[in-house]
Amino acid sequence: MATRERTERLPPGIFDLPVEKMREGYYTDAYFNHTRETLLADGRHPRVVMQVFQRNAAMLGGADEAIAILKLCSHDWEALTVHALHDGDRIEPWESVLTIEGDYTLFAHLETLYLGVLTRRTLITTNVARVVEAANGKPIIFMPARHDHHRVQTGDGYAAYVAGAMIGAPIGVTSDAQASWWGGRGVGTVPHALIAAYGGNTVLAATKFAEWAGDLNIVVLVDFENDSVRTSLDVARALGPRLWGVRLDTSGQLVDRSLWDEMGDFDPRGVNERLVRKVRDALDADGFERVKIVASGGFTVEKIEQFEAKAVPVDAYGVGSSLIRGQNDFTGDIVLTDGRPSAKVGRRWRPNERLELVS
Q1: Which residue intervals of the chain bear CATH 3.20.20.70?
Q2: How far apart are CA 226 and CA 243, in angstroms?
């Protein structure tokens, strides 16, 4: 997979923004609405430069979405001059990623919105980039959809995609909504729910799934009975070449049956190095060397780094809630008013030659 080249920005319409409500200040912190109304009531139209930054080394997300908000929801886009970096750009602490110049009353009501999308998307893009780098190019399945509100899926999925594309590693997402902005599709395994629907029979559920699935890659969860080695072999024998991979997802409160006689010198709970090696060895010994192993369940950057340092034979990682945790908060400051410095104490105008004019 090639790394992502700088391309045209996403068109504003793709974001499906509630334009009228945004323009009227419905989603805006009240004090920005009050500020704008005060200026309008006074007949004051200050020409300002708004500067946007955050405080971490990060990978930028949400730039195109923030621009869309300004284009569609300001009171005169043509009267504004906007410069911005691109989604996927590496950014430094305090580096300006967006500047807006123009009559402040045209866009004062949008600060909450563009800071919010930059904060959320940069958090996701940065977290995914860290995981992709830790995994040394192995595929990552982006799996936090069930841990957050459905309305964040589209933008979060795109932010994950950008991180993978910039680094040159494949990212799979689990819902069509997450893949919609870049024209992909959601991917998935034979889940616990289908296995339960067939009375806990993983092989039967996998077989019926394969009959329906057409040319989809088939990956089967193999921890339903807490016996991942036996279940992996049973599924591999039943599906043969139709099986792409097995997914280990043992709960962090359980010890897989295959490890019961080996406890004592390592933490046997959840998906651990010893369990992965036992599944890999069993599959190889039975002639299923081509079957991949996907590891999921509580994986973080740190756990992936540990697995990779020990060359644990994982072919792909599924990562969920850790990708939506943390912070990458953005701040906006008016730094120039009518051509004169006006930043509050501790802030200043920080020109950034990397910024590009937005047409």
Answers
A1: 134-324
A2: 20
Question: What is this structure's pTM?
Answer: 0.91
Cβ pair 126, 328 in contact under 8 A: yes
Residue 245's contacts (CB-CB under 8 Å, 6 or more residues apart) are 217, 218, 219, 220, 291, 292, 293, 294, 315, 316
The widest CA-to-CA distance across the chain, in whole angstroms, is 81
**Are the CB atoms for 202 and 243 separated by under 8 Å?**
no
Termini Cα distance of the chain: 30
| Sign of the CA dihedral with 348 first, then 352, 355, and 359 last | positive
Q: Give the residue from 241, 242, 200, 252 showing the smallest Cα distance to 222.
A: 200
pLDDT 10s digits, 32-85: 999 999 999 999 999 999 999 999 999 999 999 999 999 999 999 999 999 999
Architecture of domain 16-123+327-357: Alpha-Beta Barrel (3.20)
Output the CATH code of domain 134-324: 3.20.20.70
